[in-house]
Amino acid sequence: MINSRITQKIAFFGLFLATLLIVLPVGMILVIIVQKGWPAITWQFLTDMPRQGMRAGGIFPAIVGTIYLVGGAIMFALPIGLLAAIYLCEYARHSVITRIIKLAIVNLSGVPSVVYGLFGLALFVVFFRFGVSILSGSLTLGIMILPIIVTASREALESVPYSFREVSLSLGASKWQTIRHIVLPNAIPGILTGTILGLGRAAGETAPILFTVAAFYLPQLPTSLFDQAMALPYHLYVISTQVPNVDEKIRYGTALVLLTLVLVMNLIAIVIRAQFRKKKKW
């Protein structure tokens, strides 16, 4: 009994240390970014156009471009990913081919983002002739986050007890009616979890938009899906490495705005997920 208690305490202490090793570096990064970036956060900085080669003015075009890209990526990836997950979970037969497809989807989540960028350049920019545009960038980001959404949605659908399906079918509901009215409402919290993960990755990536949409300096807002756009990740990279004599607070302020934007998007999705979780009956 004493040995088991000592082992338990050692295990808890090890878990506590592992948590600290994750939380402390992240906390330090956030503190540094807020401390050095907060002086740059003004209304003019958030709503003005960049001037003097991005050494002055604001980052409004980059904020708008990021919202366009993330919104377009989610609008493309979420419906397709959800339909693919429904097919794999509810309709596809259990076979070797199905297992290979599921494994391939999981492996695609680990493909480097620069590969997706080159793929988007070859497919959307060159082959489909969408050009370097918001449409090309959104589709590239959508394909990049598609495996995350498919995997999370499939796991959410599989977590719904099979007895729910049996009861619905025994009452005379069709397969699709069971999925539509029973399975999906109970799986929405898990689906939104995958959407949140996809939002975070899409908003913070630089390589895919570098090849497909990002403009180095564009002091105006895009007017169509076929226009180039500035984006916060690429803008941060440019002012940190390519533009000399940029005030440090502008760089950290841009990073702080990007983190805040991702946080706000995630919070909105988390609130929606919490509302659906309250409606679950199991």
Q: What would you say this structure looks like, in words?
A:
The protein is mainly alpha-helical and 282 residues long. It is built from 11 helices and 2 strands. The chain has a domain of 173 residues: Orthogonal Bundle (MetI-like fold). Strands 1-2 form a two-stranded antiparallel ribbon. Strand 1 and strand 2 form a beta hairpin. The two termini are 36 Å apart. The mean pLDDT is 88.
First and last CA, distance: 36 Å
Helix/strand order: HHEEHHHHHHHHH
* Overall average residue pLDDT: 88
Q: Give a short account of the largest sheet.
A: 2 strands, antiparallel
- Low-confidence runs (pLDDT<50, min 5 residues)? none
What is the radius of gyration?
23 Å
Estimate the strand proportion. Answer: under 5%
Helix content: over 70%
Strand order of the largest sheet: 1-2
CATH architecture label name of the domain at 60-232? Orthogonal Bundle
Structural class determined from secondary elements: mainly alpha
Number of helices: 11
CATH superfamily of the domain at 60-232: MetI-like
CATH topology of the domain at 60-232: MetI-like fold
State the shape: globular
Q: How many distinct beta strands?
A: 2
**Class of the domain at 60-232 in CATH?**
Mainly Alpha
